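Listing S7. Sequence submitted for prediction.
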Amino acid sequence: GFYDFSPDPFPISTPLIAPFWTDLYTGYFGSLWYRVTRDSDVIGRIKEEVASAFPELTTFSATEVVIATWDHVGYCCSPSSPTVTFQCILATDGINSFV
C-alpha cells in the first residue's frame, strides 16, 4: 500500500532522470516547481560548466534549459520527517543534452 512504498532499486528498465532517488512526498509540506528558460546568464553558466566537465565540447551553448526545484519536501509517509531541497537542471542545444 501507500504507506510502505519503496522505489525499485537500480538498475531499472525504464529510462529516467532521478536527481534524488528516494520516497519523497509533497502532500505534507514543501513545493516542487519548474521553469523553462533561455536567460543568457543561465545559459552562460551552463556553457562554462559543460566546458569544464567536457573540454571537447567547448562550442556547446544551450538553447533551452529546464530547471526543476524540490524545495523543503518531506519523506514519504512521515509528516515530521526532515526536509530536503535539491534541483535538477536539464540543458540542450538540440543535439547534445546535459543534466
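Caption to Listing S7: primary sequence and predicted C-alpha cells for the chain studied. The helical segments are 40-53. The mean pLDDT is 86.
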